[in-house]
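call fold(seq) -> tokens
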Amino acid sequence: MLCLSGNRFQVSANWTKPDGGTGTGTAIKLTDDSGYFWFFDPSNIEIVTKVLNGCTFNSAYWVFAAGLTNVQVIWSVTDTTTGSIYAQENPQGTPFKPVQATDAFLSSCPQSNGACTAPS
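ret:
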């Protein structure tokens, strides 16, 4: 799990391989706003995501993501302040479609610290 934007947003990713094997993505934080997940090998990045404060533009927090995988991925971003969830699924055998959701968390401003705590 990733904790982003002052620990306000919690990001998780779960994968399923074509043979039915499942698992949870291992999260690596890059900056306060961004991070990535690997699934099968630490040197193989599968999903990169970031949550940005777009409050001055449209009173929302924005979610961006890109993936380098075609396995099934169910991933979500939870606003730990409001409880709102932005969830997406990438179907099995389909290239991951980029996400540019500038409306992911509408009316979620102003920014406040959240309650996300990533495992050590």
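Strands lie at 2-4, 9-16, 22-24, 26-29, 34-38, 45-53, 60-67, 72-79, 85-90, 99-106.
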